[in-house]
Design goal:
Blueprint: E1 2-3, E2 7-8, E3 17-26, H1 33-48, E4 53-61, E5 66-73, H2 76-83, H3 88-95, E6 103-110, H4 118-129
Antiparallel strand pairs: 1-4, 2-4, 3-5, 3-6, 4-5
Length: about 130
C-alpha cells in the first residue's frame, strides 16, 4: 500500500467545520494504469490551484488496482467547482469505462481534526457501506 503525504493548501480554522470526502476508485484491470498515472499528475496540478481545497492525500493498492483520495474542502460549492472542471472532468470520463463500482463517503470534520487519518476515513466508509 502506498500513501502520499498529506498536502495542505490552506490552514484550517480549528473551530470551523469542513467537508471531508473519501473517494474509492477501483480500476477493473491493469490496462489503464498508465493512463491513470498520467491523468493523476494533471489532476494534482489542478488541485494545487483549486480555491476552497484545504488539503488532500492519495492511497493506492497497486497490485489490486484500487485507489482512494482523501480531501478536505471549505464547502460543497468548492468541491463541485473542482469536479466540474478539467482536467478532473476529462479524467473521469476517460477512466469511467475501466472502473468497477466507485464509492464516495462525505462527512463534516472540525478544523482541529485536519488532517484526518486514513484509518478514521476508512472506518467511516465501512460504517456507511453496512
Amino acid at each position: 500500500m502506498v500513501d502520499t503525504p498529506w498536502r495542505s493548501l490552506l490552514p484550517p480554522d480549528r473551530g470551523r467545520e469542513y467537508l471531508a470526502l473519501l473517494s474509492y476508485l477501483p480500476l477493473t484491470g491493469f490496462r489503464k494504469m498508465l493512463t491513470l498515472q498520467r491523468q493523476s499528475g494533471k489532476v494534482r496540478a489542478q488541485l494545487a490551484s483549486t480555491p476552497g481545497l484545504i488539503g488532500y492525500s492519495f492511497r493506492a493498492k497497486l497490485m489490486s488496482h484500487r485507489f482512494w483520495t482523501l480531501s478536505i474542502w471549505e464547502d460543497e460549492r468548492a468541491l463541485m467547482a473542482f469536479v466540474g472542471r478539467d482536467p478532473h472532468r476529462t479524467t473521469m470520463s476517460i477512466l469511467q469505462p475501466y472502473m468497477a463500482e466507485t464509492a464516495f463517503t462525505r462527512w463534516t470534520i472540525r478544523g482541529s481534526d485536519v488532517p484526518p487519518s486514513w484509518d478514521d476515513a476508512m472506518q467511516r466508509a465501512d460504517a456507511t457501506s453496512t
